[in-house]
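re: ur question from earlier - yeah i can do the single chain one, its not a big deal. heres the input i used so u can compare w yours
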Amino acid sequence: MPIAQAPPYQLFTLATNVWTAPYWEAASRGELVAARCATCDHPRMPPTPFCPRCHHQGIRWVRLSGLGTVYSYTVVERAIMPGMEAHLPYVPAVIEPDDLPGVRLVSNLVGMDLADLRVGLPVRLTWHRTDAGVGLTQFRLR
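and the output i got, formated as tokens:
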């Protein structure tokens, strides 16, 4: 059976702002963090200028374990751009962190037999570092 590959990271371009920069700074150190409201503690992922619950702007960043569950995924088997053929199939996925229920992280599943993929699968974080030093999340079977 085919194995889930990493997508072509050379196509990735990082664009941050004041709300997302702390996430990417932590990722460059190999740390997975999530934003919570500094006032009411409501999760704010992705980080937003205002808390959706209490509308305050303060953010508190918490470190996550890197353990999670597959919430959703799709298998990309066809190259949509030149240079992607060597990266097929790849599996974009939505992961729910074990230590932050209800939050969803968009990432990729790698190193897994496609026949084993399913919603609810327990996964663990691994990191891919780009040539520019950006840390990108990937998840593997736990």
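The mean pLDDT is 94. not sure if urs matches, ping me
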